[in-house]
Design brief:
The structure holds two protein chains of two kinds. By secondary structure, chain A is of the alpha/beta class. Chain A has 15 helices and seven strands. In chain A, strands 3-2-1-4-5-7-6 form a seven-stranded mixed beta sheet, with helices on both faces. In chain A, helix 11 packs parallel to helix 12. Classes of the chains: A alpha/beta, B alpha/beta.
Chain lengths: 447, 810
């Protein structure tokens, strides 16, 4: 490629340098003042030489004709041999010449213009043809594209539907499994009950609503009502304080309302703060409690409340009828089997998407689990959050969430950053209560 | 012989300053050799004095055997001058462009006018110029030189003592450089600088005479001490000369300090000596400043030093380096100063350095070098100085340059030159500028007898004659040669451009003498061919090649037809033209193939003297804007393949976007190929980057050549390729497609590629030729050797052969 005519220049080295240069070149070079077009594209097209040559021939001929068709203003040098030096003679000859050839000149100019127009005309025509071709091609393309787009959509939909179906089926199977597990557990329990009946007389496992309790016992229970009201007033906090605390549950209720319904049942509604709170927000509320005096207070606020046992009441309700079931500080009053039953009934009566919220003291807090819990003599055992979470999971609630609440105020905590201090604060001055929040899953089709 | 006059602003034996000393030496020595020398100068005393004050009385006095005319100085507007001068001095050197004036015409006129001037001196020149054989003006900067030289231009020689400084770029300077009959340089470096600034047009009239250095003869008592400084205790590096920042003395001090920091235990000292205001003495760090010293003290310093360092970048010649070499001590010069660095590298008498660190390293090198190494360098330098800086040799060169030597003398010296043992005039290190110096570049008048002459006239016949056309120029050169040989010679042509109608005889009005010899320039058949065929006298055919028809076939079939016919006619011409030549062996081979008998070769004459003019200033200003200029000179024609060139250029832009393509050539819109080329440029969107110049005049063509970075030819058919050689004179690297006569013209120079398929590769090659300085240097060096083949003197023998053959045929 390179002629080795200079002994000082090593041709191979030079070729290598060239290769390196070519490798590094920048293919989209912006030019000063120019549009940043892709030069390489236009070069590689290698301007169609035949077309260019032919058109340039045409142009050249036209240019030449144009030049020659103009009228002359000086006699050609050839005629210098004749004695025509006198200006007037020259002028006359020129005038004559131009006069004679005037018409021809016009014709020539017209021809030249005609040719140029013809050239333009052909170009326009070609462009038109091209454009039409492009349009038809585009239309075809669009059409084909739409078809394939539709195909694609259809496939997508099918795919999604299949997926959903599968998810539902899996959920259903899971629920069934849970249900079977529970039934099995219950069976076991009742078997045990029957076999160890005599030993467990005292524990009073109510598998049926209040069948064993006599009137006197009931009346005995109500004797505590008044006491309880006073007690509440002293330890639980004023009405206003309670209302403040209840606000935190609103988002969960709202979500349930969206997915299920806005009917809410509050178990152990007490003084009715929660019911009132919800009613203000526009929910349909019901409450139940066994304390007559509490109930009276509720009724004085025009709240729909019933004096009835929680489980008994729930059992009367239809499947999938409620948006939310709530119970604040009730589950720690229930015997364990009752709690189980309560949860089962709760999930039954909830609409899909409905929520169950139970708040109870947090045994992880040492002060609570050793002292505060026992301030209420009717409390049974502290209920760890893991246990209650497991219960709800097992019952079929999904998702289940534990919400830690009400830590001691900061002023009471021990100051310091060492690990011992931190740990101590956590265990002694951490959250005093927690709430368990469980949703009934949507689309549960058992079988 | 009439006297020689030296025109200088100040005159005196004791004047300080290189130019003043040079003037004194040249004048007195020429007088010593027996020539009549006069001095024309002003009444002003010296450079530092007030230039408007007359110190000496006006009149003629004889001093040291010379007639010295002193003329009173003009009053001047010193303020205006100082204003322009300080403005000039503030301009940064990097911004100056060759051929472009750094100030407005008014300002440069002020510089020339309010300079040191003498109306009386100028009047004298005008009145008495015929009485003098020649004038030597030196140096270049002063009013009397700038205004005086043009008055006596045909006898004027300029010794500019040029530096690369802002003044050199003023248009008044360029004017006197071009007007002068001859240029005398004191060093090869200065000559190269002048070539760079003023173009290769000055080469034929440039002579590096050199400058001599006085060798001190007496060494009575060897000097051991100068003041408190003892010469033998510590080794030292010497720096001689005026001590100021423009001579880079500060720079050298810094370098020495750096060296001392790295090597604090070194005993090497730095000794400064010479005139200057500030004192640099700092004994603690080893610098000793002796101030102004006596001549013999200076010699002693030189003979005892380890080396002489000359850090100045502003020298047209370095006397002190020569002096050091006469004492056989090595010297160091600054790489960026052409004059000194060229001398040191040619002589191999020392070292070169440019950056501060390099100079600091040099101190270390000298410190560590063995005495033998230093002596070796010193001896190399001594030999060089013997050949170049000895006054006798220098004065001989002056005599030749000024035409003071008679014919016989010249012959004698010519014989001495041819004798390989003689080392009289040419230095053993032939530099490009001096190698052909003694031969002279113009035709030497023939001393041959006229007895063998039969012909009284030899005319030329051309179909058409145009301005700037290679063939037309060749015809003119041939005509001038024939006339110089005593023949009456005219150019007859049928069609001529208005511009040059005076040069020719227009057919068919003028008649051709049938007895005259005829040289017929043939390219394609035309109206004049029958005339040539029927001419009864002795005739010779010069074949300039007919473009092969296939190039024009796609574009202009009619013209292609004409071309084909032309080729067909050649064998018939062979019968009637027994004598034939071609511009190149390529052309001659075509002749031989057509049946011509033993065709010889007459290459086209290319003499750089045609460029001894100032280039077009507007073009010079606009072409030196930082963009690379890629040049091709040639008519817009299908065989020249400008369309391929434009396409390759488009690829070039992807490698090096800041470039433009200049097509110097003429095209007609009525020609299909021209339209085709315009179309391609349009399609590739290169309208902003490709310039088609159309017909240009000589100053414009000169501007294009002076500013071009690459000459790029994609031509597929050339009968000779004149622009290839022209580019070589401008040191433009040539990149050409190997075709037809191109390899023959280029020989071992330029860079040729053999296939055109891969335009990107060719574009990359072009980029390398511009940007890879090493490659560029190699190519240019080869080109500098080859371009001499086409000088008039080189071609002379070929012409003589033709004349001889014509004479014989008569």
């Amino acid at each position: 490629m390179i002629e080795p005519n200079n002994p000082e220049i090593n041709v191979d080295d030079l070729m290598e340098q060239i290769r390196q240069e070519v490798a590094k070149r920048n293919l989209t070079v912006p030019r000063r003042n120019n549009i940043n077009q892709n030069i390489i594209g236009s070069i590689n097209l290698s301007p169609d030489t035949t077309m260019s040559v032919l058109s340039s021939r045409l142009q050249a001929l036209l240019n030449d004709a144009s030049l020659n068709s103009q009228s002359i203003d000086k006699l050609p040098n050839k005629l210098n041999r004749f004695p025509l030096k006198i200006r007037i003679i020259q002028k006359v000859i020129l005038k004559l010449y131009n006069f004679v050839f005037k018409k021809q000149g016009i014709v020539n100019q017209n021809f030249i213009s005609a040719f140029k127009e013809l050239q333009e005309l052909t170009e326009v025509k070609i462009n038109q043809k091209n454009q039409e071709l492009i349009n038809t091609l585009n239309k075809r393309f669009e059409f084909e594209r739409e078809i394939s787009e539709n195909h694609y959509q259809a496939l997508e939909q099918k795919h999604q539907a299949l997926e959903q179906k599968h998810t539902h089926q899996i959920k259903a199977l899971q629920l069934e499994l849970t249900y079977n597990k529970k039934t099995f557990a219950n069976l076991l329990q009742s078997l045990e009950n029957r076999t160890g009946f005599s030993n467990q007389q005292i524990t009073n496992i109510p598998t049926q609503p209040a069948s064993k309790s006599s009137y006197s016992e009931q009346e005995e229970a109500h004797l505590l009502d008044a006491f309880y009201v006073a007690f509440e007033e002293k330890f639980r906090g004023s009405y206003e304080e309670i209302a403040k605390r209840l606000k935190v549950y609103l988002p969960f209720i709202e979500q349930a309302k969206e997915q299920a319904s806005d009917t809410i049942l509050d178990l152990g509604c007490g003084r009715g703060e929660w019911l009132e709170f919800l009613r203000e927000k526009g929910y349909q509320v019901q409450g139940i409690d066994l304390n007559r005096m509490m109930l009276e207070e509720c009724r004085s606020k025009n709240l729909e409340v019933y004096e009835v046992d929680a489980i008994a009441h729930i059992q009367t309700l239809a499947d999938n009828s409620l948006g939310a079931v709530t119970g604040f500080h009730i589950i720690e009053h229930l015997p364990f089997p009752a709690l189980l039953q309560l949860l089962q009934e709760t999930i039954r009566v909830l609409k899909p998407g409905g929520v169950a919220i139970f708040e109870t003291p947090n045994p992880q807090n040492i002060l609570v689990s050793t002292r505060t819990f026992y301030l209420d003599p009717t409390h049974r055992n502290p209920l760890p959050s893991d246990l209650i979470q497991f219960l709800l999971d097992n019952t079929g609630f999904e998702p289940v969430e534990v919400l830690p609440l009400h830590p001691y105020e900061e002023a009471l905590q021990i100051k310091g950053t060492e690990e011992l201090t931190q740990r101590f604060n956590q265990y002694f001055y951490g959250p005093q209560d927690y709430a368990i929040i469980g949703y009934k899953p949507c689309n549960p089709s058992p079988l | 012989m009439q006297p020689i006059a030296l025109v200088v602003p100040w005159w005196g034996q004791d004047l300080k300053g290189g130019a003043e000393q040079q003037a004194y030496q040249v004048a007195t020595r020429l007088a010593q050799r027996g020539h009549k020398v006069e001095v024309l100068t002003t009444c002003c005393r010296a450079f530092p004095e007030n230039w408007a004050v007359n110190h000496y009385p006006a009149g003629v006095k004889t001093e040291a055997g010379l007639k010295v005319h002193r003329f009173p100085v003009n009053p001047r507007n010193a303020q205006a001058f100082d204003q322009v001068n300080s403005f000039l001095l503030k301009l940064p050197l990097e911004q100056l462009k060759i051929g472009v004036s750094p100030v407005s015409p008014t300002d440069s006129a002020i510089f020339a006018q309010e300079n040191i001037n003498s109306e009386a001196l100028l009047k004298y020149l005008k009145k008495h110029q015929q009485h003098y054989h020649a004038f030597i003006f030196l140096p270049y900067l002063y009013g009397i030189i700038l205004n005086g030289l043009p008055l006596v231009a045909e006898r004027a020689y300029l010794q500019p003592c040029l530096h690369n400084e802002v003044y050199a770029y003023l248009p008044e300077i360029a004017q006197i450089v071009h007007k002068a009959k001859g240029l005398l340089f004191i060093s090869e470096g200065e000559a190269q600088l002048a070539q760079h600034l003023y173009g290769p047009g000055i080469l034929p009239k440039s002579i590096v005479a050199g400058a001599g250095v006085e060798i001190p003869i007496q060494r009575d008592t060897p000097i051991e001490k100068i003041g408190k400084f003892s010469l033998k205790t510590h080794p030292f590096v010497l720096c001689l000369g005026r001590r100021d920042p423009t001579k880079n003395t500060d720079f050298l001090i810094q370098a020495y300090t750096t060296f001392k920091q790295k090597h604090p235990d070194s005993p090497l000292r730095l000794v400064l000596a010479g005139p200057g205001n500030s004192s640099y003495s700092d004994l603690t760090s080893g610098i000793i400043d002796l101030g102004l010293v006596e001549e013999n003290q200076k010699t002693a310093l030189l003979s005892h030093c380890q080396a002489l360092f000359q850090p100045s970048r502003n020298e047209s010649y370095s006397r002190v380096i020569m002096e050091a070499w006469f004492e056989q001590r090595p010297a160091a010069a600054h790489r960026d100063c052409l004059a000194t660095s060229l001398a040191v590298s040619t002589a191999q008498g020392g070292w070169l350095a440019s950056t501060l660190n390099e100079w600091a390293e040099l101190f270390h090198k000298v410190d560590q070098a063995t005495p033998q190494e230093l002596s070796q360098y010193g001896q190399n330098g001594h030999q060089y100085a013997q050949n170049n800086a000895v006054w006798d040799k220098v004065m001989e060169r002056y005599e030749i340059a000024l035409g003071l030597i008679q014919e016989e003398e010249r012959e004698k010296r010519k014989k001495e030159r041819e004798n390989p043992e003689s080392t009289s005039l040419s230095s053993p290190y032939p530099t490009p500028l001096t190698s052909h110096l003694q031969m002279g570049w113009n035709f030497t008048p023939q001393a041959s007898s006229r007895k063998s002459r039969q012909l009284k006239a030899i005319h030329q016949l051309l179909p058409n004659f145009s301005y700037g056309d290679a063939i037309s120029n060749q015809a003119l050169a041939i005509r001038n040669y024939l006339r110089s040989q005593g023949y009456s010679s005219e150019i007859f042509t049928r069609y001529v451009e208005e511009k040059v109608i005076k040069e020719i005889q227009l057919l068919p009005d003028k008649k051709l003498n049938p007895k005259a010899g005829l040289i017929y320039h043939h390219s394609i058949g035309s109206e004049v061919t029958p005339l040539a065929l029927t001419h009864p006298g002795a005739k010779c055919l010069i074949y300039h090649n007919i473009t092969p028809a296939e190039f024009f076939q796609p574009f202009d079939p009619k013209f292609a037809q004409l071309l084909a016919q032309g080729r067909q006619e050649l064998p018939t011409l062979a019968q009637t033209f027994p004598i034939a030549v071609g511009d190149s062996a390529y052309n001659s081979s075509e002749l031989a193939a057509c049946g011509f008998r033993e065709p010889s070769v007459l290459p086209i004459i290319i003499n750089p003297a045609q460029w001894d003019i100032s280039p077009d200033p507007h073009l010079m200003a606009s072409l030196q804007d930082g963009y690379k200029n890629l040049l091709f000179v040639g008519r817009i024609a299908p065989n020249k393949k400008q369309d391929d060139l434009v396409q390759a250029f488009a690829h070039y832009l992807t490698l090096d976007p800041d470039a433009r393509l200049i097509l110097v050539g003429w095209g007609n819109k009525s020609e299909p190929y021209y339209c085709h080329l315009l179309n391609i440029i349009e399609e590739l969107e290169l309208k902003e980057r490709v310039i088609i110049t159309g017909k240009v005049n000589e100053t414009q063509l000169l501007a294009f050549y002076r500013t071009a970075h690459l000459f790029w030819s994609m031509s597929e058919h050339e009968g000779f390729g004149v622009p290839l050689i022209e580019s070589m004179w401008f040191d433009i690297p040539v990149l050409a497609y190997k075709s037809s006569a191109v390899p023959e013209t280029l020989q071992g120079s330029g860079l040729m590629f053999t296939d055109k398929k891969d335009l990107v590769t060719i574009a990359a090659l072009a980029k390398l030729l511009i940007h890879d300085l090493d490659l560029r240097d190699k190519v240019i060096r080869a080109q500098q050797q080859q371009r001499y083949r086409f000088l008039p003197t080189s071609i002379q023998t070929n012409l003589d052969t033709i004349i001889h053959k014509l004479e014989q045929a008569f």
